[in-house]
Structure formats: C-alpha cells, structure tokens
C-alpha cells in the first residue's frame, strides 16, 4: 500500500460515451424467471444497462474525446499525454491509446499507453497522469477509461448478465492549481475470484467473466474503508469536508454498505447504478457525469470542488483519491448509435 500527496492537475471536463442500445433488466425475466430478476433488481438497484455488441473502446473513446476537445476549445495537438485504462482493448497489440491517438490527430510527441486495470482503474490512471504531468511538464492530458464487459458474459449467466454495462469515459486534465492525494494497493491472491481465465495466452478461447460475489463483498469490506482513511490523512482532510463521495458503482447494496462504513453522509454519496449498472473503470467518471452534468460548456468556475474517489475490485486492486480542483467546464453524457 502506498499513500502520497502531490500537486495535482485541474479537472477541465468529463464526457462519457454510452452505446445507444439499452438492456432492461425486467426483460430478462422471460429468460431467467420473473421472481429471480425481481430479487436481483431489488438487491442491486440496477434496472437497465447500456450494452453493445459492436462498439470498441477506441470508438466510444473517440466520440467522447472529440466532444471534450471541441467543447473546451482544445486542439488535438495540445494534448501531451493520452492514457487508456481498459481490460477489453481493441487489439492484443497495438495499444488502444495509440489507435486513439491516430484517430484524434494527437501529435507524435505525446506519451500514449494502456493500463490493464478494471474497477480500480480510474483512480490508478489518475495517479499515473498526475505524476507524469508533474514530472514531464505536460500541460494537457486525456484519461480514457472503460470496458465492453457485456461481451465477456454468457447469455445464460444469470448472476452476471443483469449487473454489467458498457461505457467509456474521457477526462480532460490540465496543469494548474490543484491538490490530490492517493492511496493505492493490490493483492493478487484475489485473482481467482474475479477473472476471465480464457482470452489470454494461458488458456485459449474467448474471454468469459467469472465472479465470486461473496468474495468480492468480503474484499471490499476489508480494504475500502482503510484505503479511504489513508487517502484522507495524506490529503490532510476529513470526510465531512468532501462535496461528493464517488465509489466504484458495483451495486446499490455495496455502495450503501461502504458509505456507512466510511461514515459518509447520504447527501455526499453518489449513486448511478440504476441506469448504467457496473461499468468497470468508467463507473466513477460516469457517476460524476450523472451527478454534475452540465451538457454545455460554460465559463470556468474556480470554486473548489472536493472529491473523494475510490475504486476497488479485480486484482484484487484498490485505489482512493482526495482531489481538490476547480469545478469542471464541461460534463456530459452522449449516446452513440
């Protein structure tokens, strides 16, 4: 576990791209049984999810990136760093970041790389972006996070099919007066409980997701609260001072349980699982979009925004951040046919 505080980038905007197609969990009753689906919806709080059998991470990432660049008035060649966090890359190689760099027209001098992380990936990606911007003197960056998880789930998997959605979020970051503190950790002994054994070199075949929900809950209850506490200490903050507490959007029961455990007020907690489900590394920025959406660019508001972010899951891996930044100029959600 590593906790540290650094001068952070300013949040300029977030745009999340969602597939236009939506799967209503109620409709799964015809396949899995009405009573079973009713219980799953009641327990998880997930009523519908964006799904796609055609889009890639780079395609949705391109739509969100162009919306951000146009809305903020940024030229593509002003971006010096482009990081993609995903576990469903377009190709085994090259990196999805390089694919997206070319599509957007980001200059050849930009640093572009992928990070293979899931539910903790947004905060991990934010830590890498923040560190590189500071050490390399980069003024503007795009952090792209998301997965096409639904394509890893069998049609007959009643436990997982109602839970996951597809989404890609792009966050625009700029060097400026902001502060950010992180707590990062991992425990590879949890790998067997949330994984796809197939799809890599170890075992052939298409990727297929497996999750032991009991083990996931036990891990989350063990690691999230201490990680949040360490990030708050590193930032010199208390949770009561946070404007928004945005945890990985696994399901409503887990969010409520963890919110109580970290002693967050109900008005601080952000819930966005009802209409999106679990969208892996896109879940934290998508939840921020759902809570803060403006839909249109506006003049910069320098009022400090205090954010507590925490991702946790596959790996095991966890990550927390306390981020004080001016309010973003553009927050939006776009649907892609």
UniProtKB/TrEMBL annotation:
Organism (species): Asticcacaulis excentricus (strain ATCC 15261 / DSM 4724 / KCTC 12464 / NCIMB 9791 / VKM B-1370 / CB 48)
Keyword match Transferase: yes
GO biological process: fatty acid biosynthetic process; secondary metabolite biosynthetic process
Keywords: Acyltransferase, Transferase
A single GO molecular function term of this UniProt record: 3-oxoacyl-[acyl-carrier-protein] synthase activity
InterPro entries: ACP_syn_III_C (IPR013747), ACP_syn_III_N (IPR013751), Thiolase-like (IPR016039)
Any Pfam family the entry gives: ACP_syn_III_C
Enzyme's top EC category: transferase
EC number annotated for this UniProt entry: 2.3.1.180
Highest taxon in the source lineage: Bacteria
Domain called Beta-ketoacyl-[acyl-carrier-protein] synthase III C-terminal: residue spans: 238-324
Protein name from the UniProt record: Beta-ketoacyl-acyl-carrier-protein synthase III
């Amino acid at each position: 576990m590593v906790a540290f505080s650094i001068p952070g980038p300013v949040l300029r905007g977030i745009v999340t791209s969602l597939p236009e197609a939506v799967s209503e969990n109620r409709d799964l009753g015809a396949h899995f049984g009405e009573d079973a689906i009713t219980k799953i919806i009641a327990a998880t709080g997930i009523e519908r999810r964006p799904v796609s059998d055609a889009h890639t991470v780079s395609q949705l990432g391109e739509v969100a990136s162009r919306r951000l660049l146009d809305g903020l008035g940024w030229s593509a060649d002003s971006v010096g760093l482009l990081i993609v966090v995903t576990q469903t890359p377009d190709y085994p190689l090259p990196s999805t970041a390089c694919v997206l760099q070319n599509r957007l027209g980001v200059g050849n001098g930009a640093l572009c790389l992928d990070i293979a992380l899931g539910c903790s990936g947004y905060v991990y990606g934010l830590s890498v972006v923040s560190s590189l911007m500071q050490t390399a003197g980069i003024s503007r960056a795009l952090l792209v996070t998301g997965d096409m998880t639904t394509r890893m789930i069998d049609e007959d998997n009643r436990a997982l099919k109602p839970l996951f959605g597809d989404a890609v979020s792009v966050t625009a970051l700029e060097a400026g007066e902001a502060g950010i503190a992180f707590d990062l950790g991992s425990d590879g002994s949890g790998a067997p409980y949330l994984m796809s054994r197939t799809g890599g070199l170890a075992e052939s075949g298409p990727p297929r997701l497996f999750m032991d929900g009991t083990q996931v809950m036990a891990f989350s209850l063990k690691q999230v609260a201490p990680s949040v506490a360490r990030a708050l200490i590193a930032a010199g903050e208390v949770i009561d001072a946070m404007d928004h507490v945005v945890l990985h959007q696994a399901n409503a029961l887990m969010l409520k349980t963890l919110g109580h455990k970290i002693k967050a007020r109900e008005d601080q907690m952000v819930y966005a699982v009802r209409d999106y489900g679990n969208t892996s590394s896109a879940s934290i920025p998508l939840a921020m979009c759902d809570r803060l959406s403006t839909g249109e660019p506006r003049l910069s508001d320098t009022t400090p925004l205090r954010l507590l972010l925490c991702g946790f899951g596959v790996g095991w891996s966890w990550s927390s951040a306390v981020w004080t930044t001016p309010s973003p100029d553009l927050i939006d959600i776009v649907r892609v046919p």
